[in-house]
Design brief:
Length: about 425
């Protein structure tokens, strides 16, 4: 299925119209190497490092991994870096890139989660105090109260991969408005952000009153896949976490409504999560259970095998989840397959005509969106064709997270 894998270096471009390697060089003007602290959140960052030093991409994810691009950028900038890992690592010092394990407390309920988050945040701040980096790249996985404390030591660059509120739904309730004001206070210390979607960038701009400079990446698919000729829509795929907030039960309900009229329509769920047991029970209770499949979690190859075997992918995220992008729509576009997404999924902005958008939490609109593709082959074929515009973006390495981070750092290096 795979046509080719591009070299890792092609995902980080630091020599362009505005970004010159000489701006970063630690040898220029006798400067010491810049230090960068990276707090990426969950994930096997050391495993990614082992793949990187061997010239391989992370095999667990179909998109270029942030940590892999970070290592490549550090190498190209001739910088030193400290990577904070939430998973245990075998070795801490690896030449110019060092690792430090941040132990997280177990969380059993909301109170223990708050305690765990606080303890993790304190450990990150303490490590920054010792390391004294010039730049801190921190994921939105960590609490926002760390931003002003980290800004004491260096320039904070937020890696923003989730929205702070659902797209198009500004905080209105008292509790949510209080959280918004708290976020706004913490965001006063943000200098830069690399955002996973234009919506994330807009929200950062709102929180900082336009002060923080935002760079918006486009997820980069590592491999290239053959496009299959499709004439009609008959198989639906949900790919992601099995959670009620992700809209899995809304989609199942919509399928049960459509199934009597569409005799050859089928639905597949792929993924894992806290709602797995309930989903399996709901499938077994459906009158159309012989046309519904749950295949569990998939690895990178399994993800793309599943996508290529279906006609449309649905991302029915509800208003109770802060969706940062909706990556599955781009993974589907790599195969020439369109998507149906709810109105809180920011991916729709780049997916354009290749996707259908329905009102969030609206069962009737979801049913209608699926029915239109099933009943109108011409419309379905047009949407398949529109995925070509998306592929132009997901294979444009100038728009990668690593390239955006290079531009973010260059803004300060060029002014130094």
């Amino acid at each position: 299925m795979t046509r080719s894998l591009e070299p890792i270096g092609s995902f980080v471009i630091i020599e362009g119209d505005s970004v010159k390697r000489s701006e970063f060089s630690g040898k220029k003007k006798n400067k010491a190497k810049p230090r960068i602290l990276y707090a990426p959140g969950p994930g096997d960052v050391y495993g990614s490092y082992i793949h990187w030093i061997n010239g391989r991409h992370e095999i667990k994810t179909p998109t270029a991994a942030y940590s892999t691009m970070f290592y490549e950028l550090v190498k190209r900038l001739d910088a030193d870096a400290l990577v904070l890992s939430l998973q245990k690592i075998r070795f801490e010092q690896q030449e110019s890139i060092s690792f430090h394990f941040i132990r997280q407390l177990e969380a059993f309920n909301k109170l223990s989660y708050i305690r765990s988050s606080f303890a993790t945040g304190i450990r990150i701040v303490f490590r920054a105090m010792i390391y004294r980096p010039k730049y801190i790249v921190i994921s939105t996985h960590f609490p926002c109260w760390t931003w002003p404390l980290l800004a004491i030591f260096s320039t904070v660059i937020l890696s923003c991969h989730n929205t702070f509120w659902p797209q198009g739904i500004l905080p209105r309730k008292v509790r949510k408005k209080a959280k918004f004001n708290y976020l706004k206070f913490c965001a006063r210390w943000l200098s830069l952000a690399v955002c996973t979607s234009a919506e994330c960038a807009r929200q950062i701009s709102i929180l900082t009153s336009g002060r923080a400079v935002c760079y918006t990446e486009v997820p980069q698919i590592v491999a290239r896949y053959p496009l299959q000729s499709r004439a009609r829509c008959r198989s639906i795929l949900f790919l992601g976490r099995i959670e009620e907030d992700k809209g899995v039960f809304l989609l199942l309900h919509a399928f049960n409504i459509l199934a009597p009229e569409c005799q050859d329509l089928r639905l597949t769920f792929a993924g894992d999560g806290s709602g797995t047991g309930r989903l399996q029970e709901s499938i077994s209770n459906s009158n159309f259970k012989n046309r519904i499949n749950y295949c569990g979690p998939l690895d990178s190859e399994g993800v793309h095998n599943a996508i290529s075997a279906h006609d449309v992918i649905v991302c029915p995220t509800t208003s109770r989840f802060n969706e940062g992008l909706g990556l599955v729509g781009f993974e589907a576009a790599a195969h020439g397959i369109p998507a149906i997404v709810s109105s809180v999924v920011p991916a729709s902005e780049l997916l354009g005509e290749s996707c259908s958008v329905f009102g969030v939490d609206d069962l009737n609109e979801l049913v209608s969106s699926i029915a239109k593709l099933v009943e109108n082959p011409d419309q379905y074929i047009r949407k398949c064709g529109a995925t070509g515009m998306v592929r132009a973006l997901i294979y444009d390495r100038r728009k990668s997270w690593g390239t955006c981070l290079a531009f973010a750092i260059s803004k300060f290096e060029s002014e130094a």
